[in-house]
Amino acid sequence: MVVDRAELHALLDDALVAHVGVTLGEHPVVLPAAFAADPDGPDEDGTLYVHGSVAAGWLRGATDATVCVTVTQLDGLVAGRSAFHHSMNYRSAVVIGPARLVEDPAEKQHALRLIVDHMVPGRSATLRPDTRKELAATAVLAVPLHEASLKVRGGGPVDEPEDVAAGVWGGHVPLRLVAGEPVADVDATGAVPDDVRRRADVLAAR
Amino acid sequence: MVVDRAELHALLDDALVAHVGVTLGEHPVVLPAAFAADPDGPDEDGTLYVHGSVAAGWLRGATDATVCVTVTQLDGLVAGRSAFHHSMNYRSAVVIGPARLVEDPAEKQHALRLIVDHMVPGRSATLRPDTRKELAATAVLAVPLHEASLKVRGGGPVDEPEDVAAGVWGGHVPLRLVAGEPVADVDATGAVPDDVRRRADVLAAR
C-alpha cells in the first residue's frame, strides 16, 4: 500500500493511544493500548508494537491473527454551513496485519523501551532494568507497518455554494492535546526529572 | 452488564471520536467516526449513533453484524518509577452490540442532529434542514448501549515499594484536549456564531 511514510511516522510519534481491533469469538473487540512504532523494526516497512498484560484475553486472541491497529489524532471541529458538511479534522492511520507475539528477549526489551520512550522521550534510560518477573508478566505484539493507510482532513468546511451565498458562517475550531504541570506522587522526592519536564513542556506549548 | 451509567454518559459527552470495529472479510477493521449517544434512544439502555457515507464499505459491512464501538479519552501520562509501571490515565467505554441501519426518517434526522450537536452543542437548531439528497447520502448506524463496559484509570503510578524507597521520582502529567480560537472560513461573513464561540470557550477553559 502506498502511503507517505514520513507523514505516517509523524502521526505515530504525535499520537499516544492506539485502538487495537481483534476478533474475539464471533465479533470484533476494540481496545485502547499504548504503542510505539519502529521504522527500522524487523517487519516489512517497520514494526508497530503494542503491549499489555499476559493475562489480557485480547492479547491471546490477537496472537497470530490478523489485527487492525488504528491511531487517530483529533485536530479540530469543522462547523459547516449545513449539518451535512459538519466534520472533524484529524489524522488517522489504519494498520492491518498479522500480530506476532514477540518472544525474542532482546526485541521484547527494545519494544518495551520504545513504548516508555514514546510516552516520555528519554525516560527508559533513567530507569532500572525490567525484572524477569516484569518481562514475563508483559506481552508484546508486533504488527508490520506494511499495510498502512493514512487519512488526513484539515482546514475549513467544504460547503454548498448556496449556503455560502446565503451568508451562513462556516469555519473550524482547532483542537490539540496539551499537558498540564507534572504532578509528583505523594512519596516522590526531588525535582521533576528533566525527561518528564521536557515532555510536559513540549505538550504544553503545542 | 453493570456499569455506572452516569459515568458512561459523561465520557460519551466529553469524547468526540469513537473507534468503530467491524469485521470486513476475514479480519477486523477499526475506523474513527463521529458519534452521539442518546440515553433515551429506542434501544435497550439507550442508543449510540455513528454515521458515515452510504458509500463507505465499513458501514455496509457493519449493518446487522455485531460491532464494537470504543470511545477513549486520554487524561494523562503516568511516569512510574520503573518501565513496568508506566501507564496512561484514561477513560474508555467499550460498547458491543448489533448494528442496526437507521431507516426511520425521524430517527435518522434525530441522530444526525445529535451528532452535530455533540460536536457543537446547539448548532443544529441554527442550520437549514437537511435535503433529501443529503439524507440519502448519509448512513446512520445505531448500537444499543446495553452491553457497555467502562475502564477508568486516574492518578499517579502504583510502584514497587523498593523503587519508592530508592527515591526514584514518580508522578503523572495531566493531558487535556483544548480548543484554539475559531477560524472563520475565507468566505465567512459576520461574527463567530454563539454556539461555536461557546464550544471553543468551554474546550479552551478545561
What does this molecule look like?
Two copies of one chain form a homodimer. Chain A is an alpha+beta fold. Chain A folds into two domains: 5-159 and 171-175, Electron Transport, Fmn-binding Protein, Chain A (Pnp Oxidase, Chain A); 178-206, no CATH class. Chain A is built from six helices and ten strands. In chain A, strands 1, 2, 3, 4, 5, 6, 7, 8 and 9 form a nine-stranded antiparallel sheet that branches. The longest helix of chain A is centred in the middle third of the chain and has 15 residues, at 105-119. Chain A is globular and about 65 Å long. The mean pLDDT of chain A is 94. The interface between A and B is large, with 87 and 87 residues.
